[in-house]
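Journal club prep, notes for RB
We'll compare a predicted complex against what the paper describes. Inputs for the protoporphyrin IX containing FE case:
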Amino acid sequence: MEIPEALRGLREDPVVEVTLPSGDRALLVTRYHDVRSLFADHRLSRNIARPDAARISADNELFVDPNIDPDPPKHTKVRGLVTRAFTARRVEALRPIAWRIASDLLDDMEAGPRPVDLNEAYAFPLPIKVICLLLGVPAEDRDSFRSMVDGFLSVTKLPKEEVARCRRDLWTYLGDLIDSKRRDHSEDLISGLIRVRDEDDNRLTEHELHYWTQGLLIAGYVTTASQIGTGTAVLLHRRDLVAQIQQDWSLVPSAVEELLRCQIMGSSVGTLRYAVEDIPLDGYTIRKGSSVLLSEESANMDESVFEDPFNLDIRRKENHHMTFGAGLHYCVGAALARMELQVATEALLRRFPNVHLATPGEQLPRALGGFMEGFTDIPVDW
Ligand code: HEM
C-alpha cells in the first residue's frame, strides 16, 4: 500500500524509454512542468491509428480508431458539445442524488452479510448509477455492459478473440441504445447528442456519436470506481487518517485530492501520443514519429512542485496534481468524479465510523492486466 519505489528517481531524466505491455517501445515524460505543457502541445497527436505508432496492448487496439480525429480543431468542437453537461454547477446539482444513491447502497450493505466486498457493494454501483442517470442508460443493463467494458479495457487479461468479441458486443449494444433513444426523445446527455447529430450532419457524425457515447459510458465509471475502491482501501489501511477526517469533515475534499495525487494502486497505463514534429525538452529531443506517454504518476511525485511528495498528506494545500490530465484532453468528468469521490468517502465514514479492512491492506488481491489496476476485492467490515 505504498507509493511505488520506482517513482522515486524517475525525474533525473526528463524522458525515459519504456517497454509497453505489447512489447513496443515508447518515451515516458517524467517531470511535472514538461508533462503539463505537453498535455497542451499540438506537436503531440492523440491519433495513434498510424502504422508506426506503438501499441499499448498486443491483443487490443486500445484508443485506436481510424474513423475518429482526436486532435484539434475537430476534437475540440465535439468535446465542447459534451463538456457543458459536466460544468461545476450541473455537477453540484447532482450531489444530493449521489448522496441518496450512496445512502441506499450503504443500507443494502448494512442489511447483508459481512464482510462485504466494497468494490461490488459500493465503489462500482455508485458511479455506474450516476453515469447511467446522466447518460440515460437503463441501470438494469449494467451487468451486461460491465463485462463488455472489462474486455474492452483488457491489456493482457483476455485473449485477442475475447477482446474482439467484447468490443463488437459493446458497439452493438450502444447502437441499439442510440436507436431506442432516437425514438423516445428524452432529456439525458445521449439524447442531447443525438439531437445535435440529427439536426446538423457536420457537427457530429454517426460514428462520433457512437464513439463519444462509448467513451463517456466507460470513462464515466471505470476510473471513478477504481479510485473509490483503491482510495478507500488506502484510507482504511491508514486508520490515523480516517480518525483525522472523522474529527474534521472539512478535510474530505483535500483528502480526496491527495488520494487522487498518489493514485497508489489505481493507476492506469495511460493514453499514448505520437510526436508529429521534433520536440526539444530539457536538453533532450523527442524525435518526430516517437510514441509518448505523459506520466501523471511521475509528475505527481515531482519534488520541485510537491513538498515531501511521498508523504500522503490529506491536508495538502495547492494540490495541482495531473491525475485528470491537462490541456487539450483535460478530463471532461473531473468535477463529477471529485464530487462522487467526496460523497463516497464521507457517506461511508459517517455511516460506519468503525469501518475497516477485513483483509490486511498488503494482502488485497490486485486487478492486473486491465487498463486500470486497482484491487479485485476489498473486503470490509464495521
Ligand atoms: C477518478 C476518476 C477519473 C480519472 C482519474 C480520469 C482521468 C482522465 C485523464 C487523465 C484524462 C486525459 C486523457 C488524455 O489526456 O489522454 C481523461 C479524459 C477524459 N475523461 Fe476522465 N477521469 C476520471 C473520471 C471521469 C468521468 C467521471 C468522466 C465522465 C463522463 C470522464 C470522462 C472523460 C472523457 C470523456 C475524457 C476524454 C477527454 C478528451 O479527450 O478531450 N472521466 N480522464
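Talking point for the session: The CA atoms of residues 112 and 282 lie 56 Å apart.
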